């Protein structure tokens, strides 16, 4: 029984009884469970017992002994074997037969073995025939009366192996467990005798002190003749962890040792400081690949035990951050370890990081941003609005239009200046998170928000926009062709290359930066001419997509080169069934496209939709003021308004509310008219993007997707899509999707969650292609972020991040992941896809809440808040005076700022948390108030009353998520603002990193019921770029590789690496990217 062992060898028997199938020892050749090794021990014990039984009985076995003496019946068994399973089984057999073992390192001179034999007088030597011959053990037997027997372990292992139960004899505690030889002060070998009680204590206490668990993999590096092997083997065995034997040739080379630690996913190790230094500061051809500081890039390594030498600050700074560092000390005479210092280094971002400085600077920027927005509102109200009353209406429109254009140009100029001053050129390197370089990069990315390169690029965005965007990217240093079509954000500009007529679809960032390994790793990305990267695909830093290649949707290209047609996570080559193979665009095609795009871009700046709302506001004020007041108005002060306008102000919030509702209704109506009046798309078809027909299709797709984002989960979504030309059956529920209504057919009783791609329309090599109709059969369930260009057969279930390029024939199947795995859909979900029946009142409230409140009223309230800010400003400060200009402008700015913050706190934080919190039912029918509350809270927090403080990539981000109900530990790092989908149900430990486009969610709509499940992310977990954790727990130190997706309820084990969609355990050897060749460069 665990904890009651009286013999060190009984730790193995206990583990074999409790966890027989658990891996005990892993060598280069094989792995062995506790049960397998226990059986091997039993075979050796039987042979050893026969040998011991033939020995002469001791004359006085029970006579009193002094501390340095051993009993006459305490035989010594010398183990002369290489480290591995035979050696481990032999020492256990010796101890369980109440002998003391003495292990000899076969790499040592045989003369040393002779000196040991002369001292300890072993009764038996256990070895192999090969070693017996190589080391001339027969000569040792002839020259001395010891050993009396030499046992061939290979022969012993052939004997019948039956388990032998543990005795748990209290007398064993005071018997010898092993002998360790030290050179001593005289230079002659001296045998140190350690008893079972001492050895058991150190194994148990040490294991508990450093927190070993059964999921750990502890490196067995030390020689069996050095006492550190006791904690490596028995300390791990006390926790039922796995010991992993490191080959002698590997441990002699620091770089090789480093790669071995990664390959074997080692979570704990014991080493001397000088050995660690060879791994962090090495030279030679291998080390040039490993890099000088790769030691800190072992995300699975969580325990480092250091002893034997003085511990230097350089070792601590390199190996301690984010790990348990145990600096142990103890002479051999007192069982390996007698004292030590266990510490958790909280400064886990690296020696060149400045977390406090970054927090201060980023905090200032986070606060200044809403101040600048409030100042912008103040200038619009105090300067521009009065000015419109002294000029004609058409001039007012030109003024508003010119100001918006100038603001856009100014933003780009500021971005260019900031990038080249703060960064210069991005170069391939590694930097600490919160280093000074990271801070400069964060500032550039923050300035890019709101510019033409920082705004979202939805499907259907015009060629002119892309042309202008590419111009700005080139000015920022990106090697982007003017004819490229990039529908996503670009990060680390200089390291990104996109060729002519290549297409990179969204929504995943095209980023050359990766944080998943605990460092800011920068590596170049290139997409060749005419290449196609499908929707929601991820290009890992370091990836190369060859010219004319095709990357399927929802794939992940690792940090290497791919060509041809690839798909999957990670991407692998697949067979191409296209009638015409892809080719590199001709130079004439590129020139023609570039010329037409440039002509279209020259007039793009004339169309400024952002000017519509300000112009409508000016019209309302001028209509209220009347033509006479407007003409006779005299600007006594630069911010004064006509009296009639001032008297109208109290009504402004209601007018704003009504006008917002009207504008939203007109937008939906205009979308329906555009979709109906423009020519219908009839697949299969293909249009040049620069052609009139191509622009019509792009315009239709742009407007319908904007309307879909506006409606979100509104129950009127299917009816509106019918108005736009789509064919929908009865009982359909649909959210915000990417679609082309002309080519979408949805059957009865289908449920479609958010962000799915329900169209075959793509932009490829300058053409808008629509190869087929998207047809979803009756009773289909579609989760989030799937790509279904051809649709699904009847009764299909499509999970999360699933790509199905073709529509299959078989009904009632389930699909999950990329490439999609297929399974039988549960029968309870395939009979009838309609939601559970609800009362008339519940249905009425569901429709009212999702259609009226979420779509119209909440946005009307948002407009009322802005209007109320203006009213409050004018009521408190009608106009400035000669002595109070700056004071009034400051107070007006403060009013706008406080109203923005107050509305966010009231609606998003307080009301959002009241509607949706951890006390909400964990399973509710679709038409329940739980669902409507959840919908409304999402609209409030994510789309309407968004936070004025954007904290992504800062130390303040955890506080932001805590306001939403998440439980987050220390040193949480998350790049983007919205990564926790269900914050009240998410608990995150310390030192967790969430990379670009990754998210964590705790809900599902399976079976048309909203179900919540708590999600726990353990300490030191890594959720890498575009990875998704869905209703699964992530253990301590686990890593979810880029674009990987967890299967519902498939928890990630501690200190393991997972990859794929769905995620499965991956080999660490395959995870090493060439990013590792770069050292720290801060």
Automatic annotation (TrEMBL):
Coiled-coil parts of chain: none
SUPFAM superfamilies: Acetyl-CoA synthetase-like, Trimeric LpxA-like enzymes
Domain of life (superkingdom): Eukaryota
Any Pfam family matching the protein: AMP-binding
InterPro entries from the UniProt entry: AMP-binding_CS (IPR020845), AMP-dep_synth/lig_dom (IPR000873), ANL_N_sf (IPR042099), Trimer_LpxA-like_sf (IPR011004)
Domain (AMP-dependent synthetase/ligase): residue spans on this chain: 74-341
Membrane-spanning intervals of the chain: 384-403, 604-623, 654-678, 884-907
Keyword set includes rRNA processing: no
Entry annotated with the keyword Phosphoprotein: yes
Keyword line: Membrane, Phosphopantetheine, Phosphoprotein, Transmembrane, Transmembrane helix
Protein name per UniProt: AMP-dependent synthetase/ligase domain-containing protein
């Amino acid at each position: 029984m665990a904890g009651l062992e009286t013999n060190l060898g009984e730790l193995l028997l206990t583990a074999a009884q409790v966890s027989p199938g658990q891996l005990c020892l892993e060598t280069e050749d094989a792995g062995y469970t506790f049960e397998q090794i226990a059986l091997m021990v039993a075979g050796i014990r039987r042979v050893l017992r026969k040998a011991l039984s033939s020995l002469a009985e001791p004359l006085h076995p029970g006579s009193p002994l002094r501390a340095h003496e051993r009993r006459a019946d305490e035989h010594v068994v010398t183990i002369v074997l290489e480290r591995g399973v035979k050696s481990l089984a032999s020492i256990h057999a010796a101890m369980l037969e109440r002998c003391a073992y003495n292990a000899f390192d076969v790499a040592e001179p045989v003369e040393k073995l002779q000196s040991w034999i002369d001292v300890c007088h072993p009764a038996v030597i256990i070895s192999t025939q090969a070693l017996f011959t190589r080391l001339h053990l027969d000569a040792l037997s002839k020259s001395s009366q010891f050993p009396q027997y030499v046992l061939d372990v290979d022969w012993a292992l052939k004997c019948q192996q039956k388990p032998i139960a543990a005795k748990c004899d209290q007398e064993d505690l005071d018997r010898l467990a092993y002998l360790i030889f030290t050179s001593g002060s005289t230079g002659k070998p001296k045998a140190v005798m350690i008893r079972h009680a001492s050895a058991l204590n150190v194994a148990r206490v040490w294991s508990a002190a450093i927190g070993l668990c059964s999921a750990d993999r502890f490196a067995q590096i030390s020689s069996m003749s050095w006492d550190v092997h006791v904690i490596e083997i028995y300390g791990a065995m006390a926790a039922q962890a796995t010991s992993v034997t490191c080959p002698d040739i590997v441990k002699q080379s620091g770089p090789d040792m480093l790669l071995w630690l990664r390959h074997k996913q080692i979570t704990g190790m014991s080493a001397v400081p000088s050995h660690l230094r060879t791994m962090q500061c090495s030279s030679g051809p291998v080390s040039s690949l490993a890099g000088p500081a790769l030691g800190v890039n072992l995300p699975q390594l969580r325990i480092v035990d250091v002893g034997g030498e003085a511990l230097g600050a350089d070792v601590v700074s390199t190996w301690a951050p984010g790990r348990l560092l145990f600096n142990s000390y103890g002479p051999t005479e007192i069982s390996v370890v007698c004292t030590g210092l266990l510490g958790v280094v909280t400064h886990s971002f690296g020696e060149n990081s400045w977390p406090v400085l970054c927090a201060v600077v980023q905090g200032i920027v986070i606060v200044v941003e809403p101040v600048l927005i409030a100042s912008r509102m103040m200038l619009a109200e105090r300067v521009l609005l009065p000015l419109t009353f002294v000029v004609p209406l058409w001039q007012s429109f030109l003024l508003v239009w010119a100001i918006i254009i100038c603001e856009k140009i100014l933003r780009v100029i500021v971005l260019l200046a900031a990038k080249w001053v703060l960064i210069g050129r991005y170069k391939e390197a590694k930097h600490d998170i919160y280093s000074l370089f990271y801070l400069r990069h964060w500032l550039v990315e923050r300035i890019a928000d709101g510019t033409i390169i920082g705004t979202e690029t939805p499907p259907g965005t015009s060629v002119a926009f892309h042309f202008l965007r590419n111009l700005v990217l080139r000015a920022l240093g990106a090697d982007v062709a003017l004819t490229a079509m990039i529908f996503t954000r670009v990060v680390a500009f200089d390291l990104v290359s996109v060729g002519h007529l290549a297409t990179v679809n969204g929504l995943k960032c095209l980023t050359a930066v990766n944080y998943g390994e605990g460092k800011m790793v920068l590596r170049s990305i290139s997409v060749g001419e005419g290449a196609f990267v499908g929707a929601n695909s991820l290009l890992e830093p370091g990836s190369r997509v060859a010219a004319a290649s095709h990357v399927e949707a929802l794939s992940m290209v690792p940090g290497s080169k791919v060509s041809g047609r690839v798909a999957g996570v990670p991407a692998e080559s697949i067979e191409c069934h296209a009638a015409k193979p892809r080719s590199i665009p001709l130079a004439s095609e590129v020139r023609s496209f570039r010329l037409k795009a440039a002509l279209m871009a020259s007039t793009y700046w004339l169309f400024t939709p952002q000017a519509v709302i300000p112009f409508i506001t000016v019209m309302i004020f001028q209509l209220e003021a009347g033509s006479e007041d407007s003409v006779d108005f005299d600007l006594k002060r630069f911010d004064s308004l006509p009296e009639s306008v001032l008297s109208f102000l109290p009504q402004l919030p209601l007018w704003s509310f009504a006008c917002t509702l009207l504008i939203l209704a007109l937008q939906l109506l205009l979308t329906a008219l555009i979709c109906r009046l423009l020519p219908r798309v009839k697949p299969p078809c293909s249009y040049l993007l620069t052609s009139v027909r191509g622009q019509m299709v792009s315009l239709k797709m742009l407007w319908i997707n904007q309307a879909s984002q506006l409606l979100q989960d509104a129950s009127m979504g299917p009816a509106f899509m019918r108005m736009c030309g789509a064919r929908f059956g009865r009982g359909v529920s649909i959210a915000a999707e990417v679609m082309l209504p002309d080519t979408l057919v949805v059957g009865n009783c289908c449920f479609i969650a958010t962000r799915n791609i329900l169209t075959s329309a793509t932009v490829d090599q300058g053409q808008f292609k629509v190869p087929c109709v998207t047809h979803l059969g009756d009773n289909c369930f579609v989760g989030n972020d799937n790509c279904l260009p051809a649709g699904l057969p009847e009764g299909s279930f499509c999970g999360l991040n699933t790509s199905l390029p073709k529509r299959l024939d078989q009904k009632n199947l389930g699909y999950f992941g990329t490439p999609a795995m297929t399974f039988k859909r549960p029968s309870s979900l395939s009979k009838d896809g309609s939601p559970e029946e609800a009362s008339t009142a519940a249905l009425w409230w569901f429709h009212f809440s999702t259609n009226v409140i979420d779509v119209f009223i909440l946005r009307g309230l948002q407009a009322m808040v802005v209007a109320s800010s203006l009213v409050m400003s004018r009521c408190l400060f009608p106009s400035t005076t000669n002595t109070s200009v700056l004071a009034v402008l400051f107070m007006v700015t403060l009013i706008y700022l406080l109203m923005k913050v107050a509305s966010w706190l009231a609606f998003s934080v307080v009301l959002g948390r009241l509607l949706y919190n951890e006390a909400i039912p964990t399973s509710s029918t679709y038409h329940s108030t739980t669902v409507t509350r959840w919908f409304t809270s999402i609209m409030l927090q994510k789309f309407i009353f968004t936070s004025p403080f954007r904290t992504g990539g800062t130390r303040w981000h955890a506080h932001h998520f805590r306001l939403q109900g998440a439980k987050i530990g220390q040193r949480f790092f998350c790049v983007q603002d919205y990564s926790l989908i269900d914050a009240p149900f998410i608990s995150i430990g310390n030192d967790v990193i969430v990379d670009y486009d990754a998210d964590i969610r705790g809900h599902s709509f399976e079976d048309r019921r909203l179900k919540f499940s708590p999600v726990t992310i353990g300490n030191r977990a890594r959720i890498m770029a575009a990875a998704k954790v869905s209703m699964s727990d992530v253990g301590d130190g686990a890593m979810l590789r880029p674009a990987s997706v967890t299967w519902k309820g498939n928890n990630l084990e501690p200190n393991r690496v997972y990859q794929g969609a769905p995620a499965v355990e991956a080999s660490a050897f395959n995870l090493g990217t060439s990013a590792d060749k770069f050292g720290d460069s801060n």
